Amino acid sequence: MDTWTFYAITHRDHVVCNPLGLAKLDEMVGLLDLPAGGRILDIACGKGELLIRTVARYGVSAVGVDISPPFVSELRERVAARIPDAATELLEMDGAAYDGEPASFDLAACLGASWTFGGHAGTLLALARWARPAGQVLVGEPFWRREPDPAYLAWSGLTREQFGTHAENAEAGVALGLAPLYALAGDEDDFDRYEALQWRATERYARAHADDPDVPELLDRVARARHEYLGWGRETLGWSLYLFRR
Q1: Distance CA 88, CA 44 (A)
Q2: Is 45 strand, coil or helix?
Q3: Looking at the domain that runs over 3-146+159-187+238-245, which CATH code has it been given?
Q4: Please, which residues have CB within 8 angstroms of residue 205's CB and are 6 or more apart in sequence?
Q5: What's the count of helices (H) and strands (E) in the chain, helices before strands?
Q6: Burial tier of 196 (Cβ tally within 10 Å: 0-12, 13-18, 19+)
Q7: pLDDT tens digits for range 203-246
Q8: CA pair distance 140, 135, nearest whole angstrom
């Protein structure tokens, strides 16, 4: 099954495609304190909720980059409906290939897609290059709430080294010379909502598209993810926004 079709189906009902509630996203947007005439970059922006809310609040211009054709299509519709007069550039491409001018953004962000740059530290380093001096860097990253069960790692294919603890994620920015400004973690309700909306969207799609040959694979992948989350992930893995200043 095509990767981006899978995520378009499973995340059909998500406003934020990460385990974070809208109130917390708004809280973080309110803390950005961006300058008039500022410019933001959102790598792996998905449906663009961070981009849209930030542009609407501060009147800044924005570049949004995402590799998923379905998400970019929906992003364009949302931008046209909610911030039609804003200066936005929306690019359908791999964020790792984006070659925007270094040190030209007041905010450089990447939420929940650190795989784009080879992990959390690589993402911070890439975003810091795009941020102006004294500009801000915002990332969303999983963290270990507790040491993962070996059975969890074996089932999921994750490694202990793949993510840090909450403290380690913050210190990764400090090690790169970034000043930590804020951290805002999702709670169990946020994670439950993020995961369970995928179950609902998948079941509804399967009922409506019974003849789709990809449905058995779709159902199997979501069932495995549900087992992983309820069996281990809910107690073990967290997710947080981390805001730094260059």
Answers
A1: 15
A2: coil
A3: 3.40.50.150
A4: 9, 12, 215, 218
A5: 10, 8
A6: middle
A7: 999 999 999 999 999 999 999 999 999 999 999 999 999 999 99
A8: 17
